[in-house]
Amino acid sequence: LPAMGSGASNPYVTQEGLKRLANHKYSSTELSYIANYILHPYCFNRIVEWVPTWVAPNVLTLSGLFCILIPCLVLHSYCPVLAGEAPGWVYVLCGVGIFAYMTLDNIDGKQARRTRSGSALGQLFDHGVDGIVVSLMQVIIVTMLQLGISKFSFWTLFMGYYGFFGATWEEFHTHHMTFGVVNGPCEGILLVVFLCFLTAFTGADMWTWDYMDVLPWKIFGRLPPMSLNVLMFYLTLIFLVITIFTNFRNTYQKLATRGEFITAVTQWLPIEILNIAAAVVWTYSWESVMKFPLVFVLTFGLLFAYINSTLILKHVAAEEFPILSHHFIPILVVAGNSYLNASGYHLFDPTAALLVLFLYVLGAYFHFAFTVTNTIATFLRIRVFKIAFR
Q: Rounded distance, CA 240 to CA 229, Å?
């Protein structure tokens, strides 16, 4: 990447932040038994040994993004309305792609330690890619589960955002990332991989069956009738609530005063604004969402990735997280336009507004990603996609 000047500051991080970023050390704890006793010793630790030492960790990270992007686009080409039957091999491709992403996401840090090329940029790059993958993964999940363009699809999308932001927010305040005994990046992803293979075998129509026809257990007998996909939604929601409660508890225990905790909670405001704006567009521009559901998901998904990446950047740079951003202005304008059009006040065509918003968010996110990555790499005197051997 071309240099922007030695240690040049930019709108996203200050010169002082760059200096603190250079001394940042990532800290995490993995409590998952599957990860610690199966995946790492028998899978990830062995696979990373096959990777040449001249391959930069960020190359592995970026490759993981394409392992999700390609299956997502293939599945969407068969099921453009987030529902419908795709050939069995497509679901196998999704399962293989998701596990490949999981593997690359776990070995990039190991490769950094092998080659002594670890840095705060690697952490930021890794989490930035994960922020994009959240949306792509949710597209695969809602399509596979036959949720279609429904309220369940919408909230499944935002459950992914809330879960990811909660973990990042906790790390911001505790300076430590904790992966629980059962966690999304391990057991959650493995479950999705299993469901992809199961769907390839049974067909996606299975998810519309009543759960009592498939799971005739007494414990489910007290629940109201519902399809398997809706049952999966509520089970995921329960897991999310427990996870976010844990994030809040850990953060509360770490902060010194109740006032600090309340201030920390206000950092969720950008996610709530994003949620409300997306809900307005989803509700009042229904026809636009029906035409371009993937555009809708990527628009708000990239804005989520921007918010989450900003939180990570401010964490490694030890700076304050900006609660509000000028990027919310066009989001709110489009949401307001959707509401006014539904109320009879025709300003802009909702579909055109959504497409323009997508292009704006796409440009804004990649400006952020390129500028921050380039600036940090220049300041640390490292290459983004190459290992500088000295």
A: 16
Rounded alpha-carbon distances, angstroms, from residue 265 to 84, 113, 241: 40, 34, 16
Distance (Å, whole) CA 285 – CA 355:
12
- pLDDT tens for 224-260 read 778 999 999 999 999 999 999 999 999 999 887 888 9
Residue 84 and residue 136 in contact, taking contact as beta carbons nearer than 8 Å: no
Q: Bridge-partner residues for 227, per DSSP? A: 210
Q: Which residue has the tokens 């964490």?
A: 315
Three-class SS state of 256: coil
How many angstroms separate the CA atoms of 23 and 25, rounded?
Answer: 7
How many residues are present in the chain? 390
Rounded CA separation 344/335 (Å): 15
| Sign of the alpha-carbon dihedral angle for 81, 364, 100, 166 | negative
**Residue 54 gets which letter from DSSP?**
T
- What pLDDT digit, counting tens, does each position of 259-287 carry? 899 999 999 999 999 999 999 999 999 88
What does pTM read for this prediction?
0.91
| Catalytic-role residue among 24, 40, 76, 127 | 127
CB 97 within 8 A of CB 67: yes
| Angle in degrees, CA 309, 313, 314, rounded to 5 | 120
127 catalytic per annotation: yes
Helix, strand, or coil (residue 102)? helix
Tell me the per-residue pLDDT of 147-174, one tens digit each, with 9 for 90 and over: 999 999 999 999 999 999 999 999 999 9
Q: Which two tokens stand for residue 277?
A: 């704006």
Residues contacting residue 189 through CB under 8 Å, at least 6 positions apart: 98, 99, 102
